[in-house]
């Protein structure tokens, strides 16, 4: 009996150590997979990630739902479009990005850009050569498009709204579009900025 008792005493510290190591491993793993929340204010609009469809409907009671998984709130000066992968009807579905259009703010684009750079202490970079286009996709270069990686989860981009008149090429309007995406991979981040919020490859 004494021999068995001594053996059990030797085994106990090893068992406790194993439990401690496993607990630390699970803690590190949970930290790696948890995405940091993000919040900012753009033109008196609170932009928050993550957020659910249900919460957005409460925030924007007059928002209009579209078949392309968009929830749009429009006022005289600002249009806010939330983009989803999943059905908006599911109250738990979360948007992957938002596009805020500031009407007639084209002349203030440089000051808007500077304000974001001061806020996040980072610089915007031009995005002129996409690396992740689909095989049959074409991208018309946008000289106004600039991108900032705020952190691993959040990308912010700014450009002037484009229109494509027939046979006349790009024409830039006075509207400024601020696009923010959340928790996307590198390919989808690029597409989000270039394709006005669309992240699916269309081949």
TrEMBL record:
- Name listed for the protein in its UniProt record: Lipoprotein
Q: Which organism is it from?
A: Spirosoma foliorum
């Amino acid at each position: 009996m004494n021999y068995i008792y001594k053996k059990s005493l030797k085994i106990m510290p090893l068992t406790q150590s194993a439990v401690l190591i496993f607990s630390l491993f699970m803690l590190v793993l949970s930290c790696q997979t948890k995405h940091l929340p993000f919040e900012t204010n753009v033109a008196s609009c609170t932009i928050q990630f993550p957020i659910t469809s249900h919460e957005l409907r409460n925030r924007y009671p007059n928002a209009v739902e579209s078949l392309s998984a968009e929830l749009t709130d429009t006022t005289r000066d600002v249009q806010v479009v939330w983009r989803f992968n999943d059905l908006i009807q599911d109250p738990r579905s979360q948007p992957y990005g938002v596009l805020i259009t500031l009407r007639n703010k084209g002349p203030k684009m440089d000051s808007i850009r500077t304000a974001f750079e001061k806020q996040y202490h980072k610089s915007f970079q031009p995005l002129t050569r996409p690396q992740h286009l689909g095989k049959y996709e074409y991208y018309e270069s946008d000289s106004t498009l600039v991108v900032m990686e705020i952190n691993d989860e959040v990308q912010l981009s700014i450009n002037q709204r484009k229109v494509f008149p027939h046979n006349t090429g790009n024409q830039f309007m006075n509207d400024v579009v601020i696009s923010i995406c959340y928790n996307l991979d590198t390919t989808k981040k690029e597409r989000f900025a270039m394709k006005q919020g669309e992240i699916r490859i269309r081949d």
